[in-house]
Specification:
Distance between the termini: 76 Å
Radius of gyration: 25 Å
Order of helices and strands: HHHHEHEHEHEEHEHHEHEHEHEHEE
Length: 336
């Protein structure tokens, strides 16, 4: 790795002169500056991110705060991460991935190192304890998710409330009167994770509006849990004919469990889901679904951050409307 001393030796100046030439903190003659810049180019020297930050220059690094907490569906969140990384590279930025529980102290530590120019924060809770710090930091940030109070913050996400409503409205149009939501693992609701809470709000509001009987059941991300939830639903709601699934990991085992219990999809039971299209379309019975737009959300988050870094105004709220694709898992309710 080329060091600043190598550049200094090549240019015939001191290391401090190289530093001043790159940072612009002290006046350097134009001839010396050109000589230093030529040596930098020929040797392929890249200042360390921390050194650039200490010199008052951009580090060209974004922090992606993506805590892998209990109940998180890792394949799903990694789709967002891939989108953030690929979009950031188009803007000449690298991404520092933070997967630990980064509370207020963790975020402060990351910012104080000077290693990052800005932050993208995921797994947002309705009453997220990180929000006061994010409002006060001298680094711009974008949240993937909407807390209960988003004033003074920049947030982007799928409109999960509208997504929950759209799934129920689809079932209502097909004549279904008894519906259930099979949701995220229990710990996700305990943390009051924003996207999960929004789906419940939309599901419940649409069911009430259509005078439908409804229930909400969290579900662990395991086939055995899917079977247990299916059995409980049929026990507690024997007239059940419509299900909304917001838990990608149990979608296939849940369909299998219902059919093992004697319900044919979609003849006896219609199922909708909020999940990636490729997951919904690949099942034995392709599932009507609202796409989880991870690529678009990740890309939008980076683009908003780049505009903020450039001193441009951005909207505080960017809600992507739900897009439903109808497949073989939903059908009109059979009247008996």
């Amino acid at each position: 790795m080329v060091k600043i001393t190598d550049v200094a030796r090549h240019a015939g100046v001191s290391p401090s002169t190289v530093s001043y030439a790159l940072s612009g903190k002290r006046p350097i003659s134009e001839e010396t500056r050109r000589r230093v810049e030529e040596s930098v180019r020929l040797l392929g020297y890249h200042p360390h991110a921390g050194a650039r930050a200490l010199a008052g220059r951009s580090s060209d690094v974004l922090a992606l705060v993506m805590p892998l907490r209990a109940g998180i569906d890792v394949p799903v969140v990694m789709r967002f991460a891939v989108s953030v990384v690929t979009t950031a590279r188009r803007y000449g930025h690298d991404v520092l991935l933070l997967t630990q529980e980064e509370g207020e102290q963790g975020l402060r530590r990351v910012v104080d190192t000077g290693l990052v120019d800005a932050l993208i924060v995921m797994d947002v809770q309705l009453d997220d304890p990180r929000l006061p710090l994010l409002r006060d930091l001298d680094r711009p940030s974008v949240l993937i998710g909407f807390p209960a109070d988003s004033d003074g913050l920049t947030c982007v996400d799928l409109d999960f409330k509208a997504a929950g409503e759209a799934c129920v409205e689809h079932l209502a149009r097909l004549g279904h009167r008894v519906v259930a939501l099979v949701g995220s693992p229990p710990e996700v609701y305990v943390r009051r994770t924003a996207f999960a809470q929004r789906v419940v709000q939309g599901f419940t509001a649409a069911a009430d509006r259509n005078r439908m009987s409804s229930a909400v059941h969290p579900c662990e991300a395991a086939p055995a849990a899917a079977r247990a939830v299916a059995e409980r639903l049929l026990r507690e709601q024997p007239a059940l004919t419509g299900v909304v699934v917001h838990n990608e990991a149990v979608l296939e085992p849940l369909v299998d469990a219902f059919e093992e219990l004697g319900l044919r999809v979609p003849t006896d039971l219609s199922i909708t889901a909020i999940c990636p299209d490729e997951v919904a379309a690949s099942l034995r019975v392709p599932v009507t679904s609202i796409v989880l737009p991870s690529a678009e959300v990740g890309s939008r988050a980076v683009e908003l951050l780049m505009r903020k870094l450039g001193g441009k105004a951005v909207p505080e709220a960017t809600l992507l409307p739900p897009r439903m694709t109808e497949r073989a898992s939903t059908a009109p309710r059979e009247l008996t």
